[in-house]
Amino acid sequence: MSTAQAAATGYFAHPEALIESAEIGPRTRIWAFAHVLPGARIGADCNICDHTLILGDAVIGDRVTVKSFVVVGDGLTLEDDVFVGPNVGFTSDLYPRSRRGPKTFPNTTVRHGASIGANASILPGVTIGAQAMIGAGAVVTRDVPAQAIVVGNPGTISGYVDSSKEGGKARVRPLEFRTGDAIEHVPGGATLHELPRISDHRGHLSFAEVSQSLPFAAARYYLIFGVPSRELRGEHAHRTLHQFLVCVHGNCSVRLFDGESSEEVLLNRPDLGLHVPPMVWMTQYKFSAEAVLVVLASDVYKAADYIRDLDEYLASLASKP
Ligand code: T46
């Protein structure tokens, strides 16, 4: 397509770009030496930089930036507002051999608002969650939860972006908090309780009593232990369940997100309890070796009480009166 034809359809193409697709949205700019193959779909207001190759099966949403030296396609979808830094490598075949490519490619999806730093490598078939931030040079080998920050090789979650602050990181509750009334408030109505500790020459004893530090009657307990440090648990909210978390050995981080703000709490003492009411999106990660997390729950296990999809969780919050 010529530059004049491009202008007629409402987008800009540099005279040195090679455009073979008719599916390009208005106000998108495609710069020199970019090659867009027939069938590629590019939305509105995108910026496709010099020396990019957009293959025929590529699906690119609106307001997407693709910096130089990136190949988009082979099962790849970039949703709205995605940023792809220079030299990012989207791989499409786990066992590549010359002239023996796979017949079909696994679907790789970068969800809306996610950013990928320069020189990162993304393995085929992964989903990078909404607003996630992939650090420069990271190697992403598996799915990335929404809002997670991933760095290193293999890519590991180092934290979460605080969606209430543009590009910011979630506030981390200081390691040794002390308060007068022994209760601190965290997002979503969750509270951090400093539990009684009775110490003598025999050691320590800590406890919680219903209606004092334990804000509900427990119907169940469960334990989480032996978690490899790279793994994360949770990534869901409960519709009605109250929970009280105590890390009785070692430490782990709990990220709480209430749809607007997020905060990370470090559970590092057996006399520190975290009450999490319903409808708080919660993740546990950064487990130390030998960490044991005890959870008291207000009800028996009910699979239907879980909301495991972040978009569904946000929609449920929005539909609340
Ligand atoms: C939570 C965080 C902190 C049961 O059968 N009974 C139970 O009481 C529990 C808690 C789990 N399960 C089964 C359900 C799954 O098949 O155990 C399996 C693993 O559970 P899940 O993937 O939910 O594990 P986590 O660590 O992601 O979440 C758990 C709790 O389920 C959840 O309520 O808030 O710990």
Q: Count helical runs.
A: 2
First-residue to last-residue Cα separation:
51 Å
Radius of gyration: 24 Å
- The geometry reads as elongated
How many strands, which pairing sense, and closed or not: the largest β-sheet? 9 strands, mixed
Strand proportion, as a percent range, falls in: 35-45%
Class inferred from helices and paired strands:
mainly beta
Give the SSE map:
Layout: H1 3-8, E1 12-13, E2 18-19, E3 23-24, E4 29-30, E5 35-36, E6 41-42, E7 47-48, E8 53-54, E9 59-60, E10 65-66, E11 71-72, E12 76-78, E13 83-84, E14 89-90, E15 108-110, E16 115-116, E17 121-122, E18 127-128, E19 133-134, E20 139-140, E21 148-151, E22 156-160, E23 171-172, E24 183-186, E25 190-194, E26 197-200, E27 203-206, E28 220-225, E29 233-238, E30 243-249, E31 252-257, E32 262-267, E33 272-276, E34 281-285, E35 292-297, E36 306-307, H2 310-319
The structure holds dTDP-4-keto-6-deoxyglucose (T46).
Task: Give an account of the 3D structure.
By secondary structure, the protein is mainly beta. It has helices spanning 3-8, 310-319, and strands at residues 12-13, 18-19, 23-24, 29-30, 35-36, 41-42, 47-48, 53-54, 59-60, 65-66, 71-72, 76-78, 83-84, 89-90, 108-110, 115-116, 121-122, 127-128, 133-134, 139-140, 148-151, 156-160, 171-172, 183-186, 190-194, 197-200, 203-206, 220-225, 233-238, 243-249, 252-257, 262-267, 272-276, 281-285, 292-297, 306-307. Strands 1-4-7-10-13-16-19-21-22 form a 9-stranded mixed sheet. The longest helix has 10 residues, at 310-319. The structure holds dTDP-4-keto-6-deoxyglucose (T46). DTDP-4-keto-6-deoxyglucose (T46) is lined by residues 220, 222, 224, 233-234, 243, 282, 284, 295, 301. The site of dTDP-4-keto-6-deoxyglucose has 10 residues, from β28, β29 and β34.
